[in-house]
Specification:
alpha+beta; 2 domains; two-stranded antiparallel sheet; 11 strands; Alpha-Beta Plaits; about 200 residues; single chain
Length: about 200
Amino acid sequence: MQRYFIIYKPFQVLSQFTSEGGKKCLADVFDVPKNIYPVGRLDYDSEGLLILTDDTRLNHLLLSPKHEHEREYWVQVEGSIAPQALDELTGGVTISIDGKQHTTLPCKASLFTEPPQVFERNPPIRFRKEIPVSWVSLSLVEGKNRQVRRMTAKVGFPTLRLIRYRIERLSIQGLAPGEIKELSKQEIYKGLLIQ
């Protein structure tokens, strides 16, 4: 029987079960059966929702360019982000991926009027009193390498903290960093809007 888990991957943990260069990996935080692997990845310095499973079909469906799945990121950026920068993000910006120019697909970008309720990061972000920060919600259907960070940098607001809040209807709501929740196949597929 196939198994399905959602986890809140903490900051500075590799999205794999083997360590590299002394970095923490998923096996240091989560205890799951053998042959369970992450679907996709989150950068070492990003945190949030990751799906773990032994369902190879789900892995293929989620990672195939033919199937678009909306992913929402909560992004803390340096500076008071301007409405014009949000418009640029929404319309698509040109970023460099592996030395090639890539124009991002249109996405949803909005400013949090109040900082979202999130767990303190460990270690915390360096606080600088004279430099304001903003929280932005970005919802994308593509996931190029370090795309969100490249996008916010391109419009002049570097990313300080990046949390993947949800993929379609599956989210980290109710999970703390390092927590895991097992779901049924039906819950996962329904949450991801997959037939």
